[in-house]
Amino acid sequence: xxxxxxxxxxxxxxxxxxxxxxxxxxxxxxxxxxxxxxxxxxxxxxxxxxxxxxxxxxxxxxxxxxxxxxxxxxxxxxxxxxxxxxxxxxxxxx
Length: 94
Fold this sequence. Notes:
By secondary structure, the protein is of the alpha+beta class.
């Protein structure tokens, strides 16, 4: 089992758009093999900073998802000009 922490810095004023996009990601995650749960968190001291925590059966299941067409279809952050920086993620093993 792994937990992935994915950190996103959103352009100020685009928070609602980011949260709406996450709803689409959440739907894709529910269909992903090996995915257990995901949660969206907003930084209490910086409302343009978010983290998604996502639990997976193993790292390969996560890698398969982020390289899938389903993931690409719901993560067009760059085209939408929602993020102010590249997303960063870390993988934590249980």
